[in-house]
Amino acid sequence: MSCTVIVGGFFGDEGKGKIVAHVAYHDHPTIISRGGVGPNAGHTVIVGEKEYGVRMVPSGFVYPDARLFIGTGVLVDPRVFLQEVNLLGVGERTFVDYRCTIIEEEHIRRDRSSEHLAKTIGSTGSGCGPANADRVLRVARQAKEVPELEPFLIDAPWELNGAIDRGENILLEGTQGFGISLYYGTYPFVTSKDTSASQIAADNGVGPTNIDDVIVVFKAYPTRVGEGPFSTEMSRDESDRLGIKEFGTVTHRQRRIGEWDGRMARYSAMINGCTQAAITGIDRVDHECFGITEYGRLTKKAKDFLAMAEQDIGAPVTLISTGPDVSQIIDLRDEL
Ligand code: IMP
Ligand code: MG
Fold this sequence. Notes:
Shape: globular
Structural class: alpha/beta
Bound molecules: inosinic acid, magnesium ion
Helix content: 25-40%
Number of helices: 11
C-alpha cells in the first residue's frame, strides 16, 4: 500500500497521462489527485478507439474506481473544469479543494495580450501565469467563492491523508515537466510554478514522509513546446527522418523534438527524488518494439537504450511504454 507521485522528467508531454492510467489499473488507488500548475497542461489518454485530451480532470479518470481530486495548489478554470466533468461523465467522483485559485477571463486576456508571456515565453494562453501572480499578490479568488463549484468542493489533503492512514493506495499526478519548473527549469522560459515531485506533494497537502515512490517519466526523444533552450534539439529534417511529429494538446503548436539528454535526466531524477523511472516512446528508438508487452521480446537496440537511460537516471526503469494505448506497456515493478 503506498502513496506514489508521478511527474515528468523533461519538458512536459512525456506521456504521464498514459503512465498514470496504467498504474491506476494495476494498483487500484482509491484517490487519484492532481498537482501541477493548472489547465495549461494537456494530457492525452488513449483507450481502445477513444482519445481523450484533458486539462483539469486528473488523467487517471479512465480508471473508474478512484475518486478524482484537484489538489489545493492547482489553478482551476471553472469553465474548463465543468465542461470536462460533463463531457467525461465523472461529476459524481470528481472533487476540487476549496482553496484552489480561480482563473478568471481577465487572467486569460492578460496572458494572451502580454508581449512577454505570449511571445517571448510562448505561454499556453490559459491564464495560469497571471492567476498565480494574483494569488501571490493575494487578490485572487478561491474555489469556495464560486457557486458553480460548490457541489465539488472538498478538503483534499484531509481526504488524502485519511486514505494514507487507512493504508489505501494513492496516486498523485504531476503535470508539466522538470525543464519548465519555475525554480529548476530554463528560467525565464518556464511555467509559473515549480513542477518537481516535492511541489506535487505540497500541492496536495501530503508531507514528504508520506511519499513512498516517485516515478519520473522520461521520453526517449524529449520534446518541448514554446520558447527556450533545448540543448539536444534536432532539426525538423532529422525528426521527420525519424518519423516523429507531435502537436500540443492545449495549443496545437508543433512540438520541438530532441535527442535523449542524459545529463538532464540525471539532474531531474536527483531533484525529483526518483525511485523508479518510466520511459515512453521506446517504439521510436526501434519501430520493431511497437506494442510489445514483455521485456524479453524487446530488441537489442531498445535494451541497450534502456540500459544507458537507467545508467543516466540512476534508478531502475520499471515502466516501458511501447505505444500510445494504455495496454502497450511493459511493467517490471513486481521484479524490483
Ligand atoms: P504557461 O505555463 O502557459 O505560462 O507557459 C509557459 C511555458 O510552459 C510555455 O513554454 C508552455 O509551452 C510551457 N508549458 C506549460 N504547460 C505545459 C505542459 O503541460 N506541457 C508542456 N509545456 C507546457
Ligand atoms: Mg501535455
